[in-house]
Amino acid sequence: MQEKHITDKIKSSYPFVDIVFGTHTLHKFPEDLYKALETKKKLEDIIDIDGEIYEGLPIKRDSKIKASVTIMNGCNNFCSYCIVPYVRGRERSRQPKNIICEIEDLAKNGYKEITLLGQNVNSYLKVEKEKNIPFEQYRGINSFATLLKEINKIDGIERIRFISPHPKDFTDDVIEAIASSNKVCKLVHLPLQAGNTRVLKDMNRKYTKEQYLSLVEKMKNKIPNLTLSTDIIVGFPGETDEEFEDTLDVVKKVKFEQVYMFIYSRRVGTPGDKMKNQIPEEEKHKRFDKLKELVENQMEESNKKYIGTMQKVLVEGESKNNKDVLTGRTDSNKVVVFEGDKSLIGKMVELKIISEHMWYLRGEI
User: Fold this and answer.
1) How far is CA 304 from the centre of its chain?
2) CATH of 310-364, one of 2.40.50, 1.20.1070, 3.40.50, 1.10.287
3) Maximum pairwise Cα distance, the chain
4) Are 66-304 and 310-364 equal in CATH topology?
5) Distance (Å, whole) CA 55 – CA 347
6) Would you give the DSSP letter of residue 358?
7) Would strands 43-45 and 19-21 be described as parallel, antiparallel, or unpaired?
8) Within 13 Å of residue 247, how many CA atoms lie on the same side as its CB?
9) Does residue 208 contact residue 200 with C-beta atoms inside 8 Å?
10) How is the chain split into domains, by residue range?
11) What's the rounded Cα separation, in Å, for the pair 105 and 11?
12) CA-closest candidate to residue 88, choices 170, 25, 133
């Protein structure tokens, strides 16, 4: 709703809608609903500025074992395919104390795994420091690295994940924090988007193919048992067949544990949408299929390495496809199914991996 053309579309095509509200006025929804009911008038509550972070809004969680915790809102990167900075505003971080208190409360309620969320988590508190925006001093937290280390100390929490970091902000102190914190998972999601330096420049990603590969090498050297996942966009405007081959080259070299693949789609309001040299859909799909084949071949190879190993698995519940088996995930986020008593749900168990099946592993106690 922060995009004007969407708001206009709602007004013209769906006249029965009573309330239109944007991302920065979510906290006012009960008030807006009350006004609409009382006055019987249509209401629009959208502010086209950087919103503040409001604490204490109720959260409905689907799981009793795993929880996501937002640590910052907005984005300052302006990647040319992405609408987020225009609709979510500039980066702003939550106060360290509020994050720690929320996670401590989750731990007391039996949650075992926390995923820290942000458009660019590893620049947590960076804007505040650069612009001298005051933030509350709490337990020495003044960066993403120090936040990770402090969460690592919280009793009851057994696993810490985070999404998404930006390669350009992946500093040495964050690498050291991941390596030294026993609860921080050694699967790191490191978005690539494209493997060609010119395409990355057009995407406004602010790193080169060589810098990305160099960062991966550094992380592999410093973080024991590191595995990596990534995002890749296929068919960005102007990408040639030769430039797409660079993306395949990076995938071959890094050997990602998981790859989230997307066919580029135009988004009104972004620079990418205005670029002249859009790739035909048929070509995009051909490249996507080529990438998919490479990734699946690598996954098959990667999965074989798990057979015969012992893996710690956080048991999440019954398998969706078979109620007779339980399911959970490894540190590297691999799904494992196994036979076991339902009393194991919510616990960390050691499993021996006995077979692999592309999208999941089979284990036994």
Assistant:
1) 26
2) 2.40.50
3) 67
4) no
5) 30
6) S
7) parallel
8) 30
9) yes
10) 4-45, 66-304, 310-364
11) 42
12) 25
pTM of the prediction?
A: 0.89
The amino acid at 251: V
**CATH class assigned to 66-304:** alpha beta
For residue 365, give both structure tokens: 């106690």
Within 13 Å and on the Cβ side, how many CA atoms surround 98?
14
CA distances from 253 to 208, 248, 250, 256, 298 (A): 15, 9, 5, 9, 11
Q: How many residues does the chain have?
A: 365
> pLDDT in tens for each of the 365 residues of the chain?
888 888 899 989 998 999 999 877 888 899 999 999 999 888 888 876 666 777 878 888 989 999 999 999 889 899 999 988 888 888 899 999 999 999 999 999 999 999 999 999 999 999 889 888 888 889 999 999 999 999 999 999 999 999 999 999 999 999 999 999 999 999 999 999 999 999 999 999 999 999 999 999 999 999 999 999 999 999 999 999 999 999 999 999 999 999 999 999 999 999 999 999 999 999 999 999 999 999 999 999 999 999 999 999 999 999 888 888 999 999 999 999 999 999 999 999 999 999 999 889 999 99
Give the number of other Cβ atoms within 10 Å of residue 11's Cβ: 13
Residue among 196, 332, 311 nearest 251 (CA): 196
Task: Kindly state the tokens that stand for 284.
Answer: 């995009």
Q: Which residue has the tokens 């410093």?
A: 222
CB 158 within 8 A of CB 112: yes
